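ARCHIVE RECORD
Type: protein–small molecule complex
Small molecule: 3,4-dihydroxyphenylalanine
Source of inputs: curated submission
Record status: active
Notes field left blank by submitter.
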Amino acid sequence: MDIGSFQGRLEALRVGAISDIGAAADLDALADVETRILGRKGELKSVMGGIGALPAEDRPKVGALANPVREAIESAIETRREVLGTAALEMRLLAEREDVTLPGRSLWRGGLHPIRETEREIARIFGQFGFVVVESPEVETDALNFEALNIPADHPARDLWDTIYVQPPTGTPEAPPDEEPRWLLRTHTSPGQIRAMRATEPPIRILTPGRCYRYEAVDASHGFEFFQVEGLMVDEDTSMGTLRGLLDAFAHAMFGAGRPTRFRPGYYPFTEPSVAFDIQCVVCDGSGCPACGRSGWMTILGAGMVHPVVLRNGGIDPERYQGFAFGMGTDRITMLRYAIRDIRAFLANDLRFLEGFPA
Ligand code: DAH
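STRUCTURE (tokenized, with ligand):
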């Protein structure tokens, strides 16, 4: 054998080895390739065994030919080993992965207060009949809260024990001495009627929702702070029939289409005639239960034709216009809608209660 063919065998070994190393699919396969080529009885050894067949003068050249081949093979094995090792480690990490995290707790983003939601529903229903919402202040004068509404000076509602009187709000202009206003927290939303009549011309169709205050002993159905929605319609041919039809539509939209309703005679100083508007009890459907005092009916609002004196106090000619008004307790309506038993829940600020309502 001459040195040329010895070199050819080395080169063939190198090419084959590099390709086998590249094809090794895992570390074990690579170790097999390594042993087969570089091992004690390996292919390189056997090629080197051919030295004996070379002419003596060529033998010193063998080292210079064989060493680069061995180094190339060793370095290819090393590189391949690193690649396969990293991949194996990654596979292992994936396989043994343990998710120690818990899913995040989503935060409650807040929602409408049930009273507010009911106010909006009331406004939506009456809005279909052309009623618009106007605001009226919570700090009110005795004159608008009582006098203008035809509530006489000796009416028990004016008693200090029912009404919360307050100092004039700061920034209130001085009143002339002869008509020094007495300030109070409105006991109902009805003064909104006078403000609306004085501010606009008929036809009038307004709702004034909001907070009212009375000096009350607080229990499951009474708060000293509560909510009402007032309604007022003034026009040329407004009648009890219009009122009845409107309230029926309201009751059916709010409590279900089949819900029976009724008018009962009532008394309010600011309406004549006055009525109480009842719906059939939503708890027992009329058979009589503790919730309706065994009567089968529940009163949801007071109403009536606006008293001519009140129209006049609002600057409206009662000979030309008639009107009706109604006032309902928003707390009570909300309690009926959601079967809430205690009015105090509304203002207790307990998130466990508040979170129970649609956002
Ligand atoms: N203001 C009355 C109250 O607080 C409710 C009411 C009754 C309002 C009859 C009205 C009405 O407008 O016509 O008890």
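CURATOR ANNOTATION: Residues 213 and 225 are 5 Å apart (CA to CA).
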